Each structure stands twice: as C-alpha cells, then as structure tokens.
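Morning run. Coffee first, then this:
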Amino acid sequence: MQKLIDELAKQNDLVHVRRQVDPKFELAAVTKALQDASNEAVLFHDVAGSDVPVVSNLYGSHDRLLQMIGAREGQSFCARWLELNEACLTASNNAVYETASPEVADEFTPCKLSDLPAITYHERDGGPYFTSAIFLANHPDTRVPNLSFHRSMQISDDELRVRLGGPHDLTQYQKRAEEKGEALEAALLLSCPPELFLGACASLPIEASELAMAAQIRGKKIAMRDCKTIDMQVPASVDIVVEGRFLPNEKRPEGPFGEFMGIYVEVGDNHVFEVTHVECRKDAVLHGLVCGSNEDLRPLEAVIAAKVYKHVSAQVRGVIDVSCKPNVLISIIKIDKQYEGHGKHAILSALGSHLDYNKVVIAVDKDVDIYDLNDVMWAYMTRGRADTRAQVLNDFPGFYRDEHKDHWGRLTIDATMPWGREVEFARKSVPGVADIDLSKYLSK
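And here it is:
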C-alpha cells in the first residue's frame, strides 16, 4: 500500500488530510466531497481513536484502472482485462506463487481490531464496517484459493459479521465446510496492493483462483507467507491481515448498511467470522472505501463491462467497446454499424450476458463517447425517434436476491443512426480544437 501511495504522490494524484477527523461520518463525508470535485486519492493522517492512517479513492479513476492493469496506449479496459483473464486461466501454480523471504515476518506486529480505525460511513449503518474487505479462503476439498469482497461489520475484537451472497464462491466454500461439520478458515485482507484488489474483482470459474489473476496483473509471482493461527498462506504484500474462521450453522444480526446501489440493506441474519489473530505492518495504512462511490463503482463497472463485451463480441461483429458507467446496472455498447438492425442484435446479445445487471442496455455508433452519458443521451435524442427505438421489457427477473422483484424489468435503447442515412446524422465539428493551446491565447 505504501508503494502505491508513493506512486500516486509522484503523479500529483494524492491529497493529504492532516487535521484529525472523526471516523464516524466525518471521514466518509470528506472523502465523498473530494470525489465530487476530483478523482484524486486521499490520505487521512490522523483518524481519531487509532494510530493507523486511512487512504481512500484509490480506484475512483478509469484512467488509473487502465494504468494499474497495464493497458497499452489506446487499448480499452475490456480488451486488456480479457487478455489477463485468458492468461490467468492457463497459468500453472508455478507461475503464480513463490515463498516470501523469512525476514518479511519481522515487518509485522500483532494488534487488535480495536486498534484499527472504526469507520462508520452512512447515517443508518449498524456500526463501523470494513468495506474494502477481501476474504481469502481455500476450498475445503480442492484447496483452490478464492479472493472476494464481503462487507464486514465490526462487533468486537473477536467477532465480525459478514454477508455472503448466494452465488459467490466463498458462499459455496462455507456451505461445503458446513456440510462437513467444519468451520471455514479464512483471512481478511484489509490493505492490499492493486493487483490483489483488482484480482478480487475478477469473475472466474470456481476451479480457478483470483490469486492467479493478481499474478497476471502484477506481471510477477505473488509472494506468500504462513498465517499464525490458521492453516493458510496469505500474500506478503498485504499490510493488515485478520485471521479467523466462519462458524458453521451460526448466523447473527448484521446491518443496516448503505450498499453500492445507494440504498440501505436492512438488518439480516448473516455469517459470523471468529477472529483468531490480527497483525499489521509497522507502517500500515487502512484502505477505507465508501460503498456506492466512484471508487466502489469504477472497478465493478469495468469488470462487468468486460464480461458483457466478451459475450456480445463473440456473437455480433463490429463491437468496439462496452461501458457500464455511470452505474453498473447500465451497459452501453459501441459498435461499428454494418447493417440495419445491427444495434438491436448487440442489445439482444447483451441482455443474456449478465443476468444480474443489464437493467438498461443502449447501443450507439462508433463516434459516441460511451463513458459520457450526456453524449450517449445526445445520440438517442438526435439520431431518430425516441419512441420506436426504446423498448420496455416487462417482468424480466433482476438480482438473484431481489425477493420483492423491485429490480425486475429491462429498458433497451437503440441509439444508433438509421442505416443508410449516415450523412444526414453526421456530427458537426470545429476543426483544430484538439491542437489549441489555450495558454497562447488567454491572459489574466
């Protein structure tokens, strides 16, 4: 984490908050206010109640994500992510792991959860939460490691309460351990370098490991070290590690919590994580993430877009790029239109690419900026009729956990130009704008 912070500082992409902030609401309020004005990361040096600094908004910039995954100039996130994904699925264990040097252990010191900043983000949150919480666990039978995000409510030094969603791999791991009458050992990674954070975002088959994806992103093997109280290894690059186990057949109240969709998930009975050991690097910095903020949404959007892109481009020619910005529930598909109905074909394919998302699907021409919803809506409003190019699909299921059907239904919009009438709908332009250096024209 410190290496990433230093790199952001060199790029003038980091701001500092040196005055003391309250971890209850104030830290999140400052972070959100900054995000409304800038994509810069922010480092809080003095958080009341703890000696551990907090960094936030590390992943709130799409350009920064491109840099972190090693995208080449002009290469889209989707294209680069799929390259990494393919390499990950064919990598052998020898290309993924290496043993960390013994001296790494000397960099860590035992601590308690209460030594860490207890950050409460939203007005109705049930208490402080670890929001960038990445769990590492091994499958009870195959021992395949899994990295995944699960919000974790701080109850005491010995207990966290964690929501495990139905289709997630960790949920299946825990269920299998429970069937065997066992607790599932796991490590909570609270301060990770980018390759582990983004690796945990990957959607891989259950027999594949997100650590392999992290190794591809890093371009090097992941150095691993032994845990103290559980039979596992963790990446040596993680600053804060919480060891423990998910108790079998035990659920307790967790929540409310303000989730990524901007609303609260109310109190529910969720899994109990018994803490057995906590340790920190001596210069550890906690990663605090405001759920539903740019930092939360940008990586999720980019990964979902890559999945949609892979599916649609395999079925429909001329697909250039896909964006899910400004919200993961929308997919915007850029195509090089080649026949009448091309946009509709892309839309139909996208609807089947990710059944939990794709609440709105829009197809646009290759001259539209799919990362700017203003430009997308301009195309819809100016390139044909508003009524016949939009369709509402009633009673299509939404999220797997949407028991009240609040997120059912789909909206599709073909915002491409009418086929054969491109000249009539060509955008106007002002020659030379890209070459203008305003400093040669303006004065104060």
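The chain has a mean pLDDT of 93. Good start to the day.
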